[in-house]
Amino acid sequence: MMKMILAAAAITLSAPAAAVAVVGEAAPAFTATDSNGRTVSLSDFRGKPVVLEWTNADCPFVQKWYSGGDMQKLQADARKQGAVWLTINSGAPGKQGHVDGKAANAKMRAQGFQSTAYLLDADGAIGRAYGARTTPHMFVIAPDGRLAYAGGIDSIPSANPADIAKAEPLARLAIMQVADGKPVATPTSRPYGCSVKY
User: Fold this and answer.
1) Rounded to whole angstroms, how far apart are CA atoms 39 and 119?
2) What CATH class has 19-195?
């Protein structure tokens, strides 16, 4: 019996602890390669609001936002407010939605992305650091580097574009509040969409 308990304890202790981003604390630092082969680090944008958007073009919940230009408008509006917008793909090779830089750039051109950069996170390191679970899953980082919002893009968990206008725009509100230097009224919410394909 004691051997079994010790074996279980050894297994538990040997498992790496998952450091997941926490609202109100410093956002996990990261460095990644973007779709053009450039190195991008979160620290490059210190002093500016940063929006992280997890994506998978094959996911109907992502398609809901891109098909009518709603995501592109949100990206453009955030950038007009001084925010940096990083679209992140944590899909592993061979999994749904995984792209290389060339495919990501083709998608961005075809759909008129307005994000600052498209980051390739094929090993899932950034996604796991933030606890990204769905596409889309949204995070807003304040200029001082604290995570100010984590959760859903809005309040209606559906893949129907008609629901966008009816929903509370949680991510948009968080971006506006951070850009205005105000506390985020709803700092966390439940994300919805397709699972991130780690």
Assistant:
1) 9
2) alpha beta
DSSP 95-143: STT---HHHHHHHHHHHT---SEEEE-TT-HHHHHHT--EES-EEEE-T
What does the alpha-carbon distance between residue 26 and residue 8 come to, in Å, rounded to a whole number? 33
Residue whose structure tokens are 């709603």: 70
User: Which candidate, 150, 92, 84, places its Cα nearest to that of 121?
Assistant: 92
Within 8 A by CB and 6+ apart from 129, the residues are 19, 20, 21, 28, 30
Beta strands at 147-151 and 117-120: parallel, antiparallel or unpaired:
unpaired
| CB-based contact 100:197 (threshold 8 Å) | no
Joined tokens for residue 108? 């961005």
How do the pLDDT tens digits run along the chain, 198 residues long?
433 333 333 332 323 334 589 999 999 999 999 999 999 999 999 999 999 999 999 999 999 999 999 999 999 999 999 999 999 999 999 999 999 999 999 999 999 999 999 999 999 999 999 999 999 999 999 999 999 999 999 999 999 999 999 999 999 999 999 999 999 999 999 999 999 999
Does the CA dihedral 61-137-170-101 come out positive or negative?
A: negative
**How far from the centroid of its chain's Cα atoms is residue 72's Cα?**
15
- The H or E element spanning position 178 is helix 170-179
Domain residue spans in the chain? 19-195
Neighbours of 189 (CB within 10 A): 18
